[in-house]
Amino acid sequence: MILVIALAACDSPAASTAEPTPSELPDALSTATSSPVSPTSSPTSIPEAARSANYQFLQKPSADSVRVMTYNINWDSIFPDGDPMNHSLRDFNRVDAFVRVMRAVQPDVVCLQEINYLRGRQALGDFIAEAIGAADDEEWQVTIERDNVIATHFGLNEKGYELATGSVRPDLLQAAALVDLPDGQYGNTDLYMICSHFKAAGQFGDILLRSRQADAIMYSVRDFTTPGGEIDLEPGTPFVLLGDFNVYDTDPHLHLRTLVRGDIEDESRFGEDLDPDWDGTALADLIPSHNGQGDEFYTWRNDGEPFNPGPLDRIIYSDSVLEVANAFVLNTMLLSDEALAALGLQADDVLLDARSGYYDHLPLVVDFVLTGTP
Question: Are strands 66-72 and 191-197 parallel, antiparallel or unpaired?
Fold first, then answer.
């Protein structure tokens, strides 16, 4: 387990110089990174005139929408210095910034990556409840698998809803659970989540391992959308695949193609291709823009490395039963002083290291509306 976690510690696309040639790999998903990803300015030199006073994008569109957030926080950076459970890879402290972000966003369900897998669920739930400023009687439930965490103030059913792999155990595990939405508000409909952190780096073996992770997820999707097997969801149950997918612009995106289209690479181990949504179509790949403004779409950036910013993190969902009412990548650097003050945020809250202008990953947020069976 320790070795597995260490393998996923770096999100840079090229941890080595060995790159597969195009002839070694299938065709890429042509639309995988079609959205613009280049930053318009240095993170520490954005003039006030270029920053927006609009913060309406942070408002939930309705009381019935479900706000989902995914955030790679960089190894245990959200926990205090000296915490005995801090991962050995922890290098940064963003404790206060994380609290401000969580209280501004107020997610209903959150998927976090790079959390030490040894942390207890109850302790994590209490920590997130305190960070978000939950009421004393509001309990946050948590499931954790490897470094992936799913947390919610709704009910959370993990037992019986783990990632189905049959006789095949994936090399890197994902967290999966059924979010038990309140019947009085949502009827009998619940929300199924798979929170993932895909293998980093750009060697041929890394690309194939990402593909294997995606194949295992599609194996599970086939299982829970058809009767029998390990997991059975009620027909039309909305589901979301989200997390740090490490979708580099230097990558053939085999895993992304699999997750969106159900195009399984290793059919001998994980079965034939499938149409993953309930209505027999592909899933939807949400690529929100910074603060909902439509100008920038990257979710990872490090100006100290020679890699382009890009939408490494993704939210993929069953759009036959889910509608997007609102979505954004939170970038506090693009908010005016007035907007920051109104939200209780600081300009560099999404930077991992303000001194060097290192963003790392940004939080992605979506407000889903449940539309019913397709």
Answer: unpaired
Placement of tokens 């940064």 in the chain? 92
Work out whether the CA dihedral 227, 233, 239, 241 comes out positive or negative: negative
55 inside domain: no
Banded pLDDT at 172 (limits 50, 70, 90): confident
66 bridge partner residues: 368
Task: Take residue 305 and report the two structure tokens written for it.
Answer: 């490395």
Owning domain of residue 219:
63-370
Within-domain flag for 294: yes
How many residues are listed for the chain in this entry?
374
Residue at 46 is within a domain: no
C-alpha to C-alpha distance for 210 and 342, rounded to whole angstroms: 41
Q: What is the helix (H) or strand (E) element at residue 15, kind and residue range? A: none
Which pTM does this prediction carry? 0.91
Note the pLDDT tens digit of each residue in 117-150: 999 999 999 999 999 999 999 999 999 999 999 9
* Count of structural domains, the chain: 1
CATH number for the domain that contains residue 254: 3.60.10.10
Residue 217 lies in a domain: yes
The amino acid that residue 167 corresponds to is S
